[in-house]
Amino acid sequence: MTLPSRFWISIGGFLSAAAIAIVAIVQAFPDPAPTLQFNLTTHNQHPMTERELVGRPTLLFLGFTACPHVCPTTLARLSRALESLDAQSRNVNVLFVTVDPHTDTPERMARYLKQFHQQIIGLSGPDRSLQQLYSRLRAYVKKLPGTTQGFNHSAYLYVFDADGTLSGHLSGSSSVETLSAQIQQLLSHHEETLHARLEYYPD
């Protein structure tokens, strides 16, 4: 049987203590896998590029501030998962990238993000710059006809390694407990990789 060029594989793992199934959704990416590249503006009105994120894994979520349900629900779950990690939450970058740059100015995003975890960085910018990022992510973003603030868009949490390479996706509809466990797993993998590199390249 010939598989399509883009297909999905579910990889399951378990935390025996909490009896929580950890499911990471991994895509069959082309070789090399896409990397995170952008030049946008944060909700605090500071310019940001992917270079500022190197050294820590990154979660990226697409959405828009006028979204009635999916975006705020996902961000709320993600915020609670980050809160459960306490100080560990500082070891992961979390980006909320708008799909509605004409409405989502940095000022509007700053007001919107006050209700979520402080680790979440809002990003907006010129439509061309955002379209380039969507293309790199192979994201689906489409404005709904007949509406001024309606969009269909990919609702995954994109997962990037510490070097900015796209490694997979997490489901935005996962429970707080599952998201927390998945982020912990991501951070543990990062620490193991970092230690392995230090052992391979001793002083």
UniProtKB/TrEMBL annotation:
Chain sites annotated for binding Cu cation: C67, C71, H153
The keyword Metal-binding is annotated on this UniProt entry: yes
Claim: Metal-binding is one of the keywords in the record: yes
One term of GO molecular function: metal ion binding
Annotated ranges, domain Thioredoxin: 27-188
Keywords: Copper, Disulfide bond, Metal-binding
Pfam family, one: SCO1-SenC
Disulfide feature: C67-C71
CDD domains given in the database record: SCO
Family the entry assigns: Belongs to the SCO1/2 family.
Protein name: SCO family protein
